[in-house]
Amino acid sequence: MRVVLDIETVQPPKEEWARLAGVAVIYPEDLLETGEAAQQEREYEKAAFDGTFSKIICIGLLIFSDSMEPKRAVSWFGPNEKELLRQFWAKLAEVRPSLFITHNGLAFDMPFIKKRSIIHQVKPTIDISLSKFRTEPVYDTMAIWSNWESRGWIKLDVLARALGVETKSGSGKQVAEMWAKGQGKAIAEYCLQDAYVTYACYCRMAFCELLPHEAVLGAPELIEVV
Q: How confident is the model over 71-87, as a mean pLDDT?
């Protein structure tokens, strides 16, 4: 079996980040002339991409046979991150994927999931090697497109347009706003759309048949975890 994976994450409140980082919060109005507030704000924003601080609110998974026949589209979403991770790892134990298809999965999605699993003490049900300079067991479309050169890293929507496939329906920056508004289901749908775009890019790069959106996603399972 093969899977396409994508996650959506949100930052903690700045006070929670500061507690974990072991620093005192500096508010912009406190030190306008020193630049310390601006520096801290940059560090806080950078932490958005680190599973040490931020949390997973959605995991999307497209499941295929070894011949890339669509089997299932499922997305877990909700505030109970520990249970979300438990259900995700349980599904992987059932599917036993031989290939994980991602975009920036080696640097972001997969390490993020591992960090959050350790924090919540949810033991992974399978071991996934994150070795670089390989196309298995993780096929990272961003890394492979750039031939592992970070200066050539490309955004998913840019790669999709270059390859002439369906593009993203939004941006990751919108996820925090959607989450704050209680739009968890919409985030789950957005996550699966990103997964489909990643799948489409993979098909072009691997010279295999690209199936339309409706054939892959069909009626996806959107599972709220509370």
A: 98
Torsion angle (degrees, nearest 10) of CA 139, 140, 146, 147: -40
Distance CA 72, CA 95 (A): 11
Give the CA distances from residue 174 to residues 107, 178, 179, 187, 191, in Å, rounded to whole numbers and listed in that order: 21, 6, 9, 9, 12
Q: Per residue in 97-152, pLDDT tens? A: 999 999 999 999 999 999 999 999 999 999 999 999 999 999 999 999 999 998 88
> Which residues are registered as beta bridge partners of 8?
58
- Beta-bridge mates of residue 4: 62, 101
Phi, psi dihedral angles at 176 (to 5 degrees): -60, -40
d(CA 131, CA 46): 24
The full set of domains in the chain, from first to last, is 2-224 (3.30.420.10)
Instruction: Please state, in angstroms and rounded to a whole number, the distance separating the CA atoms of residues 213 and 192.
Output: 10
Give the bridge partners for 140, in sequence order.
Answer: 102
With 0-12 / 13-18 / 19 or more C-beta atoms within 10 angstroms meaning exposed / middle / buried, residue 223 is: middle
Residue reference for tokens 């499941």: 63
* pTM of the predicted structure, to 2 decimals: 0.93
Neighbours of 198 (CB within 10 A): 29
